[in-house]
Write a structure and sequence with these properties.
It is a single chain. The chain is α/β, with parallel strands linked by helices and about 280 residues long. A hairpin with a 2-residue loop joins strand 1 (about 75-80) and strand 2 (about 80-85). It has eleven helices and nine strands. Helix 1 (about 5-15) packs across helix 2 (about 20-35), helix 2 (about 20-35) runs antiparallel to helix 4 and helix 6 packs parallel to helix 7. It has two domains: about 5-65; about 75-280, Rossmann fold. Helices cover about 40% and strands about 20% of the residues.
Length: about 280
């Protein structure tokens, strides 16, 4: 079978299964199997697809038809100009989280940072990659996710500037009060009652611990906001991702008086997405 025929068959199967952007996803799968870019793929559609790779290509297609996230199938995900290793046990990085990173970089200029709930390590890695002098802590409760964070930081040569910590409770961290320049977090913020409505790609495969924010999606913030108010040095920043206007309003009311709100950022769809506070002296 030539590459073009295989590509068409993949597109038809993906489209029939209701997969969004079936042509794009078929190309991702085939490029991964061929270890070539899309330009090569399009220039060689009339060539025979390597018979030895047909089983792998079909396996990848079946996994996607079963709604497994494409990032898990490929074993990686793009985030800004970074390419991260991802797989079962960690949340797939979302473009919206780039706003969280950009906001953090625009505010924070000194002092170590702490990334609470690091997952794949995407936030910590992005901060370290952008600030060659920076050092920080990446904390994660899920051991399988922490392994992905370690692999990503190692691949980019950043382990010497980041301490990885396996911990589920902020108050168990042995950090001196007033020692951090930045606390940043993309915590679980999907209300428990809304988990059933998530896309199958997310609901069936991504870790619920990284998604479930409890009633109203606010549980993780109840401990994070007061802890950050103590852990930050005067002039330090707390930057968090959240979901929607109701959560934004609740978080602004929940914050300690020692935290001054300095940024409220919406995502490209106009949905409230990021909040930032500055620790007062």
């Amino acid at each position: 079978m030539d590459i073009g025929s295989l590509r068409r068959s993949f597109v038809l199967e993906l489209a029939s299964a209701g997969i969004d952007r079936p042509l794009h996803e078929a190309d991702l799968l085939l490029c991964e199997i061929l270890r070539r870019d899309r330009g090569f793929l399009l220039a060689h559609l009339d060539e025979t697809f390597p018979p030895s790779d047909l089983d792998r290509a079909r396996e990848g297609l079946l996994r996607r038809l079963g709604r497994e996230p494409m990032a898990y199938i490929l074993g990686r995900a793009s985030f800004g100009d970074l390419d991260l290793r991802v797989g079962p046990g960690c949340l797939v990085p979302r473009p919206e989280t780039e706003i969280l990173v950009e906001t953090s970089l625009s505010l924070w200029s000194e002092g170590p940072f702490l990334d609470w709930g690091t997952g794949s390590g995407v936030i910590a890695l992005s901060l370290l990659h952008s600030r060659p002098e920076a050092e920080g802590f990446a904390v994660e409760a899920e051991p399988s996710a922490l392994r992905w964070a370690w692999a990503n930081l190692k691949e980019y040569g950043l382990l010497s500037r980041c301490v990885l910590l396996h911990e589920a409770r902020l108050d168990a961290l042995s950090l001196k009060e007033g020692s951090l320049g930045l606390v940043v977090s993309n915590p679980p913020y999907i209300p428990t009652e809304d988990l059933k409505d998530l896309m199958d790609d997310v609901r069936l495969y991504e870790p619920s611990r990284a998604l479930d924010g409890g009633s109203g999606g606010l549980d993780p913030y109840r401990g994070l906001l007061p802890w950050a108010a103590r852990a930050l040095r005067p002039g330090g920043f707390l930057v968090v991702e959240h979901g929607g206007e109701a959560q934004r309003k609740a978080l602004l009311e929940m914050a300690s008086p020692s935290l001054e709100n300095v940024a409220q950022i919406d995502d490209l769809a106009g949905r409230p997405r990021v909040l930032a506070w500055k620790r007062l002296s």
